[in-house]
User: Fold this.
Amino acid sequence: MIMDIKDIIKPENLVYQKTSVLTDNAMHYCPGCSHGTVHKLIAEIIDEMGIQDKVIGVSPVGCAVLAYNYLEIDWQQAAHGRAPALATATKRLYPNKYVFTYQGDGDLASIGTAEIIHACSRGENITVIFINNGIYGMTGGQMAPTTLPGMKTSTSPYGRDTSTMGFPLKIADMIAMLPGVCYVTRQSVQTPVAARKAKRAIAKAFRGQEQCKGLSFIEIVSTCNSGWKMTPVDANKWMEEHMFPEYPLGDIKDYLQ
Amino acid sequence: MAEKILMKGNEAIAVAAIRCGCDGYFGYPITPQSEILETLTEMRPWDETGMVVLQAESETASINMVYGGGACGKKVMTSSSSPGVSLMCEGISYIAGAELPCLLVNVVRGGPGLGTIQPSQSDYFQAVKGGGHGDYKMIVLAPASVQEMNDFVDMGFELAFKYRNPVMILSDGIIGQMMEKVELSPMKPRWTDEEIKKLHGSWATTGKDADRNYNLITSLDLDAARQEKFNQKLQAKYREIEKNEVRVEQTLCDDAEYLIVAYGSSARVSQKAMELAHEEGIKVGLLRPITLYPYPTAQIQALLPHLKGILTVEMSAGQMIEDVRLAVEGKVPVEFYGRAGGMIPSPEEVLEAIKTKLVKK
Ligand SMILES: Cc1ncc(C[n+]2csc(CCOP(=O)(O)OP(=O)(O)O)c2C)c(N)n1
Assistant:
């Protein structure tokens, strides 16, 4: 007997559904990129918390500049590095909304260091999602402050030489020291287990805004297989072997209930 | 008649902001305008009206806070002086490109670089011709008194929301620091969040309600053809502003043989110079642009048939004079008198310039 697919698509057979907070737009991200997975996790959390009408997102300059094409929420698109400043004003003017920024490592840890540090220092009651892929993806794979020693990029073609190009900036560890920050965790999304853990962390951070304890910061150690010039599978493996020792996963600070 | 209060220009900006229902001020200290933030923090408007007042970590942060606040459909503002405004220019371009309302105040000091803390008008080009990148325009208001510092705050917000465009009050260190009597504006309540949804819910990030599509504040469009269309839409808006919003004050212009064009503090000095000239029988009029963009081009052109010459007076090396010359199109001589670097011209110097450069006797 040949079954028609339409006979199978019935409410009683539903085991999984794309959240309606995600749009149907095809994502522009490269296959294997972590951005798409993180977008989906955030969308699911917004859906599950029922806060679509209370969320305002701030997108960065970087590959995720177009995040607003994929999540059905109100969005502001910030200048490079300045998302925490937009989010500061937005949260202060709408204290009952859930406000988050979504930023890459060039955006947050290079050009935007002043804005993130001071948003943390003031204890802005926002959530920051920080995608650390160790490279500038959007502009074609240049060195980032987070690039590993020896790592080859288009502006460190012989490998990052720490004697002239500095060391990886561990911004999560730095901001964990600030009293205005209530939750800092480092996660990844390369396996279903890791993605589930990351989702729990993001959900905790969003819920944490209700406790008004300060800024919550989720670093997602990520791959950029195009920038790293690796297949998605190799990039995941390389991340586990090289990025995780430099950026160890787990909670760095947790003052949330 | 309403009570008049003696106050500084900078204080007038702060008091007017609270009274006109401003939702948020974000700023960073710099002379000669720090009294704006100081007055606001002393008055604690958050207790009374709920207005947010925040000292940001830099002017870069201030302008981007204003960007976020404007995106929320709220009445937000910042103030600074020249070096700080230079730092804001990227943000101003984003705000113009995202078509957001906001009020900016530049209490200008002499430049370039760190320059001086003395008053100047050398940021005219930056305010009127761009400053930031891209084809954008700000509406620029030039107060010449402390009363106008007060009045232009509410007017600035009205224009900013009417056109969803940044508005700048281009003042200077004299008007910011001097004290004059001011009639305060009537108290306006801040918009409630419900009112903001009703007024600006079609575009502002107020949270995506079930009955509308999500709102997006951005200046990005990677498709060149669509980006050009958007630029054309912006230009059409600017033509509309040019048609509707020119403001100018003319004194004794109708039968003048000579004309001084000056704004802000220079107009105050030129007013006195004009009176001195009349005592000597020289028929001089004064045209004071109140809006620097849109510029009173037509108003200047209307006076040309009976003019023998024009003197532009500025506290700069000569910036606004370019717009005067564009209006005049070579029909009468346009001369310049200015002082730079924080120096202020005296009425006697301006009178002398009228005599030597225009009357030539
Ligand atoms: C003021 C400014 N400087 C530089 C750029 C160019 N630029 C665009 S994206 C980017 C880097 C983004 O890298 P990252 O934040 O790591 O995000 P990713 O693309 O890797 O996700 C740069 C330098 C810009 N848009 N604006």
